[in-house]
């Protein structure tokens, strides 16, 4: 599953540069995550880097975009082909 950022986001700017897939961007009010680019860092790291650095723990699993680890791996491979 991709991740999403809740409205508890304080716009601290630490998550965006940590995303290896450039899935995090500044939205109208808070940072947001593009589900089509989020692989939970599969293919890059063992754990989602944005969750590791978030000081308010506002980055959660997006239940609206269910994906298995295998599907996240395929998404990662597709993203790398398109870079």
Automatic annotation (TrEMBL):
Indicate whether Repeat appears among the record's keywords.
yes
Supply one GO molecular-function term: 4 iron, 4 sulfur cluster binding
What keywords are annotated for this sequence in UniProt?
4Fe-4S, Electron transport, Iron, Iron-sulfur, Metal-binding, Repeat, Transport
Is the keyword 4Fe-4S assigned to this protein? yes
Cellular component, GO annotation = cytoplasm
4Fe-4S ferredoxin-type domain: from which residue to which, for each copy? 1-29, 31-64
Q: Name one Pfam family in it.
A: Fer4
Q: Where are the transmembrane segments?
A: none
- Name listed for the protein in its UniProt record: YfhL family 4Fe-4S dicluster ferredoxin
Record the organism.
Paralysiella testudinis
């Amino acid at each position: 599953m991709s991740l999403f950022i809740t409205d508890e986001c304080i716009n601290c700017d630490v998550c965006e540069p940590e995303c290896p897939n450039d899935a995090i961007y500044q939205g109208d009010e808070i940072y947001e995550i593009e589900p089509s680019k989020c692989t939970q860092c599969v293919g890059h790291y063992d754990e989602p880097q944005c969750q590791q650095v978030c000081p308010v723990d506002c980055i959660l699993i997006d239940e609206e975009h269910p994906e298995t680890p295998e599907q996240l791996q395929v998404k990662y491979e597709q993203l790398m082909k398109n870079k």
